[in-house]
Amino acid sequence: MKKIDKTKPVLVTGATGYVAGALVKKLLENGITVHAAVRDPENKEKIKYLEKVANETGGTIKYFKSDLLEENSYAEAMKDCELVFHTASPFTLSIKDPQKDLVDPAVKGTRNVLETVNKADSVKRVVLTSSCAAIVGDNKDFQSYPGGVATEENWNETSWLNHQPYSFSKVMAEKEAWKINEAQDKWDLVVINPSLVIGAGINPNGTSESFNIIKQLGDGTMKMGVPDFKIGAVDVMDVAEAHFRAGFMPEAKGRYITSAENTSILNLAMALKNKYGNKYPFPNKTLPKFLVWLVAPMSGLSRKFVSNNIGYPWNTDNSKIKKELGIKFRKLDESVVEFFDQLVAAGAIKTK
User: Fold this and answer.
1) For the domain that residue 244 is a member of, what is the CATH number?
2) pLDDT (tens digit, 9 = 90+) per residue, 166-194?
3) Which residues contact 159 (CB under 8 A, 6 or more apart)?
4) Smallest Cα–Cα separation from 180: which of 129, 250, 130, 110?
5) pTM (2 decimals)?
6) 223 in any annotated domain
7) What is the pLDDT of residues 210-238, one digit of tens each?
8) Looking at the domain assignment, is residue 149 inside a domain?
9) Which domain does 340 fall in, by range?
10) In angstroms, rounded to a whole number, what is the distance separating the alpha carbons of residues 128 and 133?
């Protein structure tokens, strides 16, 4: 059980990300000095939202040029830090080779950061942002779990390079982190495993997949209906709170499923429809599975993905984080409406 000194700086990798931004806000509000590791500290457009939060909170933020795939590039940023939040993960839209474009960077990036931790005398704890994708692969997998419910004991064993490679990269990166952690006894590792993260962050122009889903619910892309896809979801500020508590509560340990509710894409759409009525072309029904299967290749989905996910329930157990870290989750209906409002205000939703 490690007690972290709040007067020391803390490192946040990938500080301009969606979850990282909310975490930085939480840290600055609590008077903690943040060492923000970013690819290009000179890119004012990238860091302007962090700057805004620092100005509003009166907090101290210092920027460090770091690259996930460059060895030792986090050493300077880690100096004097007892706590490291490793939220950065490689983000690429063009995936030609899943091993080279996704898995290798995810694993190598995690290894680079944690090997720097091993060399840093000051670090006592690392909080890693993983994903529920490291716990469960396809929704069909829930059928093999006791009671059809996934817990922190489960690992995704069905994603591979040729099926859900993003999820596979999350599995491999988290396993690498545990391997490095178990080989030493100087610092402990706590892992946050969020489901789909939604809600208003500090940057309305984020590039997370969550932004695309919510945009498509409101811009007419899905007006004919949505696939019957069940998901877990959680507010971005709750994910930041989970990281914060995982960092500073000495008793935090192991993995934490960070998911507010077991829901569906249609439920999120209905929450928006309840608020806005017919002001936007929201979907109000699910599409037949055979139809989704038929058009899957044209919409960027594999037919195997459709077969193994559409129509199956999603059910994760979030009792560990509620009991051990005292997290109280926001209602998703409020989160999705706030998220949508933020995207509309930023001009990100234009109806087709």
Assistant:
1) 3.40.50.720
2) 999 999 999 999 999 999 999 999 999 99
3) 133, 137, 138, 165, 167, 168, 171
4) 110
5) 0.96
6) yes
7) 888 999 999 999 999 999 999 999 999 99
8) yes
9) 10-345
10) 14
